[in-house]
Design brief:
alpha/beta; UDP-N-acetylmuramoyl-L-alanine:D-glutamate ligase; Protein-Tyrosine Phosphatase, Chain A; 6-stranded mixed beta sheet; 19% strand
Length: 440
């Protein structure tokens, strides 16, 4: 029995030692013991390589604007652990984390004695979320973000009313497969019989697999650029404006406050899912709610401008596709600025492809280390880069403090890479900027 939040968090994070163990058997065992809380809640399932968190946020804000109480389960966190289980965007309280940990830890100890073995950190947190939304704080609907893949992800025991697959990229190849087809098969594992599925996947080989899985399960499939289309896209200083054409209706001049063309796709997926949910007898979502929701949606660490003077941007571009989107936005929005990039990454990513793109866009590159089991060392990143103006740094905090003081006019500081790094860097940067009385 844990008595403090700190003890509970230490126990949860201690499960990281078990690594990643794909499969649903441990989740099903725990759900059986808990009386199947996952069957007592209405859910939407969101998977894909990039854009899951943003899509969850757009849909949450739409549903909130329509007057509903919305639970979310996301990962990883950016500013505090409790974000992973939230209600209407507000992380659950420390006291609730403590209570949930005491419930699930007992089951984890029992499970450890079986042939299935103990549950991983992610499985523990997922189980906590199901118990919370079913028994502690009942909400109208819960949006579940897939942790890894889909088919064997811990969240894939739900029966959602809609499924979303944002896109497909070559990430986590050591677990999910080395081709678009293999990874698409794992992502498509969240498609359920008869449940409408919405996707922004463009790769032809990947979409072929998704289409086959949807047909097998007789799940209606709606594809970006085929069944719904983004037209008249126009970048704005603080977001994007676009028109969404779908079988349901054409929504002219939708405004979003997150930056990047890829964010128009995430928002479009959320709108399509909302329109589908609207056909469920328990929900009524107006056009006003859709417009209000997508405009107010905010997700930290996604091409987020922390300061305008000096210009400081933080972006969780943690894989090749994420870096591509970042590079595209920097090229389009700041073609005449000097770009300083600070980059940290996990060593199991396709680092050569990511760094090659950064080499092309950055006038100066800083590679940093951070404290995480799977983090790449600054020296490893440095050795991959072919930039003529690069440095490697072990203590990222002092390096960022120095950079903040030296960034001048027409220069940009971009802090990017692993979301685990971003979760440490963002609050530190925000405090630096605040203490230096820098314009936000």
């Amino acid at each position: 029995m844990f008595t403090t939040y700190s003890e509970a968090l230490d126990w949860i994070h201690g499960r990281l030692r078990l690594g990643i163990k794909p499969g649903l058997a441990r989740m099903e065992w725990m759900m059986e013991r808990l009386g199947h809380p996952e069957r007592k809640i209405k859910t939407v399932h969101i998977g894909g390589t990039n854009g899951k968190g943003s899509t969850v946020t757009y849909l949450r804000c739409i549903l909130e604007a329509a007057g509903y109480t919305v639970g979310t389960f996301t990962s990883p966190y950016i500013e505090q652990f409790n974000e992973r289980i939230s209600v209407n965007g507000k992380p659950i309280r420390d006291k609730e984390i403590l209570e949930l940990t005491n419930v699930i830890s007992t089951l984890a100890d029992e499970l450890e004695e079986t042939e299935l073995g103990g549950p991983t950190e992610f499985e523990v947190i997922t189980a906590m979320s199901f118990y919370y939304f079913a028994n502690v704080n009942q909400v109208d609907i819960v949006l579940y973000e897939v942790g890894l893949g889909g088919r064997f992800d811990s969240t894939n025991i739900i029966q959602p009313i809609a499924s979303v697959i944002t896109n497909i990229g070559l990430d986590h190849t050591n677990i999910l497969g080395h081709t678009y087809e293999e990874i698409a098969f794992e992502k498509a594992g969240i498609i359920k019989a008869g449940v409408p599925t919405f996707t922004a996947v463009k790769n032809e080989n990947a979409i072929k697999v998704i289409k086959e899985q949807a047909e097998k399960k007789r799940a209606p499939l709606y594809r970006l650029n085929q069944d719904f289309t983004i037209i008249s896209h126009s970048p704005q200083e603080n977001g994007e404006v676009f028109t969404l054409k779908s079988p349901e209706q054409t929504l002219e001049q939708l405004e979003i406050s997150m930056i990047g063309q890829h964010q128009t796709e995430n928002a479009a997926l959320a709108v399509m899912a909302a329109q589908s949910i609207n056909h469920d007898g328990d929900f009524s979502i107006s056009e006003h709610a859709i417009r209000t929701g997508v405009k107010t949606a905010y997700w930290p660490g996604r091409f987020e401008i922390l300061s305008k003077s000096p210009l400081v941007i933080i972006d969780g571009a943690h894989n090749d596709e994420g870096i591509s989107a970042l590079v595209q936005e920097l090229s389009n929005r700041y073609p005449n600025n000097t770009i300083h990039i600070v980059f940290a990454a996990l060593k199991d990513k396709k680092l050569d492809q990511m760094i090659a793109q950064l080499d092309q866009i950055a006038d100066e590159l800083s590679f940093v280390s951070f404290d995480f089991p799977r983090a790449a060392k600054a020296s490893e990143l440095y050795s991959i880069s072919h930039s003529k103006n690069k440095v490697m740094v072990d203590k990222w905090e002092s390096h960022l403090a120095k950079m903040i003081q030296t960034i001048g006019e027409n220069q940009i500081l971009v802090v990017t890479g692993s979301l685990y790094f971003i979760s440490e860097a963002k609050p530190y940067l925000s405090e630096l900027l605040k203490n230096n009385v820098i314009s936000l």
